[in-house]
Structures are given as C-alpha cells and as structure tokens.
Amino acid sequence: MIAILDYDSGNIKSVEKAVQYLKKDVCITKDRDVILNSEKVILPGVGNFGDAMRKLKEYGLVNVIYDVIDKGTPFLGICLGLQLLFPTSEESTGVTGLGILNGKIVRLPEQAGVKIPHMGWNSLHIHPNATLFRGLPENPYVYFVHSYYLQAEKPEDVAADTFYATEIHASVEHNNVFACQFHPEKSGTVGLRILENFLRIGEAD
Q: Dihedral, CA atoms, 42, 46, 50, 55, nearest 10 degrees?
C-alpha cells in the first residue's frame, strides 16, 4: 500500500490518480497505523508553508513523518511537500518546518520579464546516479508551480536542478527521503516515470 498524507492539501487527488495509473494500491490517509505500515509514503502539497505546518501538527502527522523516515520507509515530498522537509521558509517567518533535510526555502528573485509565481515547464539538469530520474533522457521537461524555492545546504543531496531567474534545487535525495519541487503528477510521461522510479525503490530489478 502507498500512503498519501491527508492534511487538506489541494493536489492530493491528482497524485492519487497518478499512483493508481501505475497500478499500485494507494490510500489518502491521516491514520498513523496505516501510514507506518505502508510500503511508501508521499507528502504532496500546494499552498502556504505556515498553514501546512499547522495542519500537519493539528492532525498529529509531524511525529508520524519522523517515525516513517526513522523506519527507513521511502518517503517522497512533492512541491510544498519538498519545502516542508526543511527548517524554515521565507514564506512564513517564525514557523519551524520539519527540519529533516538541511537548507532554506527562499522567495524567487524579482527580475524584469520573470513572472512570479513560476508556472510552467522547465528542463532539468539531472545529477549522476539520481534514483528518481533513472531511464529518463537528458534535460527532461517537468511542470512547476511555485514562488519559493530550495537552496540545499549539501550539494550531495541535490538530484536535479533547473534555472528560473536563479539556480533552483529542483529535486533532492538523502537516504530514504526523496523530494521534487515540480509536480511529477502533472508532468506527463516524464512525471509518471519519476513516480514509477520512486514506487520501485526496494523492489528487485
């Protein structure tokens, strides 16, 4: 079973449909036991960093996430779900994120001709041996919707980057924790391959 964390985020159903398309059993849940007994866990997200952390706390999901990661279960954050893995975001000053990975979430810089939020397709520069991007061609295009972006503290955690007004760390991988700033569930066949690569982690080739 694949667990998608339910904390009132807007794009949960589209992630569920993508996982179902890949012929995996999936449930949207906030039940601790179901989550801890799932083979993979996904934290999707759109919206405000501070509001999302408040909801995760309200539903008792913060400690569940820590327990999932401590257990070694493959964990995928998508969009805001990536940002929540880090300690802070300029979007919500004074709010503490999950702090699972090291880095900071900052606002995209204002530049002439550059629209914020960043909404659209950008190509990725994939780093060597990145698990989520196995079997993909060089510089695949994926779909972004965001106003804030990751500056990862550890270069070795960065699995892919892109450029939109500045260098954006678009995907990270650290042990059993994986995350994408873009939306694989909205990125066509490339996105489905990324999700499939995540869902196949731990399976025999």
A: -50
Q: How far is CA 24 from CA 19, 44, 49, 128, in A?
A: 6, 17, 29, 28
Token pair 């979007």 is found at 91
- Can you give the pLDDT at residue 114? 87
Residues 157-205 have pLDDT tens digits of 999 999 999 999 999 999 999 999 999 999 999 999 999 999 999 885 5
Whether CATH 1.10.287.370 fits 2-199 = no
Q: Which residues are catalytic?
A: 79, 183, 185
Where are the chain's structural domains?
2-199
Confidence of residue 139 (pLDDT cuts 50, 70, 90): very high
Smallest Cα–Cα separation from 187: which of 170, 201, 203? 170
